[in-house]
Design a protein that fits this description.
Order of helices and strands: HEEEHEEHEHHHHEHEHEEHHEE
Low-confidence stretches: 328-332
Number of strands: 12
CATH superfamily: P-loop containing nucleotide triphosphate hydrolases
CATH class: Alpha Beta
Helix content: 25-40%
Bound molecules: adenosine-5'-triphosphate, iron/sulfur cluster, magnesium ion
Strand content: 15-25%
CATH architecture: 3-Layer(aba) Sandwich
Length: 332
C-alpha cells in the first residue's frame, strides 16, 4: 500500500486511450476482415508504490493490456508513457531496459518455469544477462530465496519438486531479481488454495513495503483485488466501466456490472443474493452498440443502445453508465 509521500507523487506510468486490437485475417491473401477489440480506449495511470487492481470476467482484455505494457503486443492506437516518454518510441536499449523494469508473474508457474533448470539458475538467469550480478550467483540466489521465504537449501532443486505456492514464490524471486519498478501479476494467485493465496498476497505486500514496487494486479476475483489494491479498474469487454480507490468502488459501486461482481464475494455469516446476468459476454469482435453491457444489463434504457457512456465522475470515483446520476439500481 502507498505511503502518504508516494500518494503525492505524479504517476510514472500512463496508459492513454489504448487500443489493443487483434486483426482477424481470412482467405488465401490473409485479408484483414475485422478486429478483436481486446482493449478498447483504456486510460490508466500508476504511481510508484501503488497497486492497481484490474478485474473483469474472462476475455475482457486484462492479459492483453498487460502484454501491451510489456511490449509483447503492438497497439492499434493510443499510447503508453513511462516516465514521460512513449514506450513505442523507445530504441532497442531503452526497450531492453523497460523489459527489465517491468516484470510479469503468471497464473501457472509450472509452465513459466523451465523444468530443466534448477532454482539457482532460474532466479539468477535474468540478472546474469542484464549485468545485475554484484555477488556470486549462489549468494544472489540465496538472498532472493530469503526475500520470498524459501530456505537456501532448495537452490539445486527443480520446479517439479515444489508445491504450487512454493513455485509461485520462485516466480516472484525471479521477477524481483530484475529490480523492477512495476510488476504485473496476471491471475498470480488464482490457481492456489485460499490459505496459500493469502500467504502469497502477504508476501507481495511485504516486498512492496521493502522495495516500493508498483503492481498491476489482474484477477477475475474481486475479493482478492480487495485485499491488495489501492485502486481498482473494473473492465468489461475491453473497456474500463468503473474505477477509483478500491474502498470507494467496493463500498459504493454504481455500475450494474460492478454490483454483480461484488455480489459474488462471499461474506461469512451473511448470505445474500448473487446477481447473475443472462448470457455470456458478447464477442469483442462485434461489440454491442452504445453501452457494451446493454444486452445483459437489467436497467437498460433507450439511450444505452445507441450512445456509449463515457467514464466520468460519480460521487468519489469514475463510472461509465448513463444512469449513474439516478442511482436507482436494485438487484434484478
Ligand atoms: N493473440 C490473439 N489474437 C486474437 N485474439 C486474441 C489474442 N489474444 C487474446 N485474444 C482475444 O482478446 C480478448 C481478450 O483476451 P485476454 O486474454 O486479454 O482476456 P483476459 O481478460 O485476460 O481473459 P482471462 O480472464 O480468460 O485470462 C478475448 O476475446 C481473446 O479471445
Ligand atoms: S449505460 Fe445503460 S446498459 Fe450500460 S450499464 Fe448503465 S444502465 Fe446498463
Ligand atoms: Mg488473462
Amino acid at each position: 500500500m502507498m505511503s502518504a509521500q508516494e500518494i503525492k507523487q505524479p504517476p510514472f506510468f500512463n496508459i492513454d486511450q489504448l487500443k489493443t486490437w487483434y486483426p482477424v485475417k481470412r482467405g488465401i491473401f490473409s485479408k484483414t476482415v475485422g478486429f478483436v477489440k481486446a482493449v478498447d480506449n483504456v486510460s490508466l495511470s500508476i504511481k510508484k508504490g501503488e497497486t492497481v487492481g484490474l478485474v473483469g470476467e474472462s476475455g475482457c482484455g486484462k492479459t492483453s493490456l498487460g502484454r501491451t505494457i510489456m511490449l509483447l503486443e503492438h497497439p492499434y492506437a493510443g499510447d503508453i508513457r513511462f516516465k514521460g516518454q512513449s514506450i513505442f518510441s523507445f530504441h532497442k536499449k531503452q526497450k531492453n531496459s523497460l523489459r527489465r523494469s517491468i516484470q510479469m508473474i503468471f497464473q501457472d508457474p509450472q509452465s513459466s518455469l523451465n523444468p530443466r533448470m534448477n532454482v539457482l539458475d532460474i532466479v539468477t538467469e535474468g540478472m546474469k544477462s542484464h549485468g545485475l550480478l554484484k555477488t556470486s550467483q549462489k549468494d544472489a540466489a540465496i538472498h532472493l530465496l530469503n526475500e520470498v521465504g524459501l530456505e537456501k537449501n532448495v537452490i539445486f532443486r527443480y520446479p517439479h519438486e515444489f508445491s504450487g505456492g512454493q513455485r509461485q514464490r520462485i516466480s516472484i524471486a525471479r521477477a524481483i531479481s530484475m529490480q523492477p519498478e512495476l510488476v504485473i501479476c496476471d491471475e498470480a494467485v488464482s490457481a492456489l488454495d485460499v490459505s496459500v493465496q493469502a500467504q502469497i498476497i502477504n508476501l507481495l505486500k511485504d516486498l512492496q513495503d521493502r522495495h516500493a514496487f508498483s503492481y498491476i494486479f489482474i484477477s477475475h476475483d474481486l475479493s482478492v483485488i480487495n485485499h491488495i489494491s489501492d485502486r481498482v479498474a473494473v473492465m468489461y469487454l475491453g473497456k474500463i466501466v468503473e474505477t477509483g480507490p478500491t474502498a470507494n468502488v467496493l463500498n459504493d459501486p454504481v455500475h450494474p456490472y460492478t454490483k454483480a461482481l461484488i455480489s459474488a464475494i462471499p461474506i461469512p455469516g451473511k448470505p445474500r443474493p448473487k446477481i447473475v446476468f443472462q448470457g455470456a459476454p458478447p464477442s469483442p469482435m462485434n461489440p454491442p452498440s452504445g453501452c457494451r453491457f446493454h444486452p445483459r444489463c437489467p436497467h437498460t434504457v433507450d439511450i444505452c443502445q445507441t450512445v456509449e457512456p463515457s467514464l466520468t465522475q460519480a460521487s468519489d470515483h469514475q463510472v461509465a453508465c448513463h444512469l449513474k446520476k439516478k442511482r436507482a439500481f436494485t438487484a434484478p
